[in-house]
Amino acid sequence: DTYKGWLFKWTNYLKGYQRRWFVLSNGLLSYYRTQAEMAHTCRGTINLSTAHIDTEDSCNIVLSNGGRTYHLKANSEVERQRWVTALELAKAKAIRMRNNQSDDSGDEEPASQSDKSELHGPLKTLSSKLEDLSTCNELIAKHGAALQRSLSELENLRLPADSGEKIKAVNERATLFRITSNAMINACRDFLDLAESHSRKWQRLLQHEREQRIRLEETIEQLAKQHNSLERACRGAPGLASGTASISSTAKAGSVQSAKGEASDEDEETEYFDAMEDAPAFITVTADPKHHRRSGSNLSGASEGHPEDWNLEDSVFESSNQSSYNESTGKDLLPRKRRRSRIPDKPNYSLNLWSIMKNCIGKELSKIPMPVNFNEPLSMLQRLTEDLEYHELLDKAVKCESSTEQMCFVAAFSVSSYSTTVHRTAKPFNPLLGETYELDRLEELGFRSLCEQVSHHPPAAAHHVYSRRGWTLWQDITISSKFRGKYLSIMPLGAIHLEFHSSGNHYVWRKVTSTVHNIIVGKLWIDQSGEIEIVNHKSKDKCQLKFTPYSYFSRDVPRKVTGVVSDADGKAHYVMSGTWDEKMECSKIIHSSHGSTSTEGKQKTVYQTLSPKVLWRKYPLPENAENMYFFSELALTLNEPEERVAPTDSRLRPDQRLMESGRWDEANVEKQRLEEKQRAVRRRREAEAVEALEEGEDYEGYIPLWFERKVDAVTGELICVYKGGYWEAKEKQDWSVCPDIF
């Protein structure tokens, strides 16, 4: 699956072939100047699934894919053959994987039977020609080997009398080889001619299907808008029944499918959780604890619990009918130090986003030069730190004796990090390489946090949080973003680790995809979609969370999140439900049984649960938040100037500070200066790498200041973990190792 080694790559006529480190993995061939560059700087990548592999001579390899061509040279013919074999195998595997994957765009097959038959005939003919090519290939290999043996015998001749017969045999075999080669060439020509003759027909069919699909999408969108208008008018009409039961989705495997609610004879407090896509469907019904105590002895099933445990006074869970989570926990966590509660209002500058973005479709967002008009006065490191706004959930999780109960709080914490994004459509500043950000709340809130930008392309940040209340969190996040024309997709890559000191429970999960809609026309809005699987690697407990994407046709509340907490044996213990912008609730499962068969043919499992408990509720935004970039109370304090921080801290970044002050024109000039300064540093680093290569030495490249790269024992990935020294340097005010990046 992976092949690595040194090859010589043609660069230009001045430098000729230069030694490069190549890595073949997952159908992609990437190269670096040194092995150390693998951690942060890839010089180029070529996709083998659509590449052409050719050999010029005994040591050369030529790879071409569209407009990109790599001319490579190995040290020996044996080494070249190893690479060619590995490349061919990787190409075949990549083609199989590409063919097996479902097309995200949802292209449909030709609708009519005549279209299918028209495609089936040419495909059958092409397959026959391909078999002819395979046969010719085998013959060429066979006769080529015979020709090689004859040539070897000819070279070993010593008697002139035998030379005539040997040369005659060589000529006969060479003639046979030539005939076979001509047959293969003709078969190739027929294959290509046939493919070209039908390609135009396939293009017309594909274009027709695309046009039909676009028309269908436009029609459905109009129908959806009319449906919503009628539904709003219907809700406003008097005399409508209001006892409809709410139906939502949750599942064991994490895939959630919305269902339509209909009138029911059940009590108004009863909640139903419909089926999951990739698991047997089940329904969750809220039970009466008193009734369960009376009839608990008659219940039996795969998953049972004791309602008395849910109502204990010293339970970590809080009842939803008591005071809110914020009121019950926030008073004893108020900061001792008074911090700012507002920033200067956002200036009203008009700028056409589409005029800048129209030439950037398909590019990485981090490589697009953007004015500060589209930014908010926070860096990505500060946005990463903002995930700790609801750190109290982890403080509560420390007190849990049950690992599944603790999992509920961890799941609520993973959802809470998205609560601030619902109105935050602005882009944070891309951190400079070596930029750091600290949030020291050890005395006030019990934790201290440190972030560092450890790579520039691709952009990657390492984060470490220590809490004296019994937990440690760390992550190494790379942001991959693509502009698709109508929307912008932001995909965080990397795992988040959370470990509790006393129990040793180690939780790992990954973030979902964020999508910014209406880039071209309309009001910008953000949606979160995808699945989160949280795994406790000590107890093997799991929690599957589904972030349901917005849909015109769904009656469910927007931004819905549902999930199930199960133990190592797969037995479900809790049902999670809520929204990622408001609150998360948890319902304890006390009984499970098999119910009726759903319309999809799957047998449903009925979960009987106790009343839900509110684990997390979003804090209200500060007054005048709409004019302060919709910052939360924590976000307003993140860029507040502080003393004794490192000279690389984001608070000291001049363009960000100017933007916060409302001086955007000056901020744009300063932003360009910092970016050009960073490019100059990168060019100098590349020159040093070339010089080291010429001297035969390895160049390590950029080394993070406070983090070090290690292979994670849990995920097997190469991540940056905190190596210590920052807080000691802060105590001594010794920042001599910090580079001058501002």
Automatic annotation (TrEMBL):
Segments of this protein annotated with the region Disordered: 97-121, 235-270, 287-342
A Gene Ontology molecular function term of the record: cholesterol binding
Polar residues bias locations: 243-258, 317-328
SUPFAM superfamilies (UniProt xref): Oxysterol-binding protein-like, PH domain-like
Localisation: Membrane
Gene Ontology CC annotations of this record: cytosol; perinuclear endoplasmic reticulum; plasma membrane
Position of the signal peptide: none
Family annotation (PANTHER family): OXYSTEROL-BINDING PROTEIN 2, OXYSTEROL-BINDING PROTEIN-RELATED
Record family assignment: Belongs to the OSBP family.
Name this protein carries in UniProt: Oxysterol-binding protein
Source organism of the structure: Vireo altiloquus
Primary gene name: Osbp2
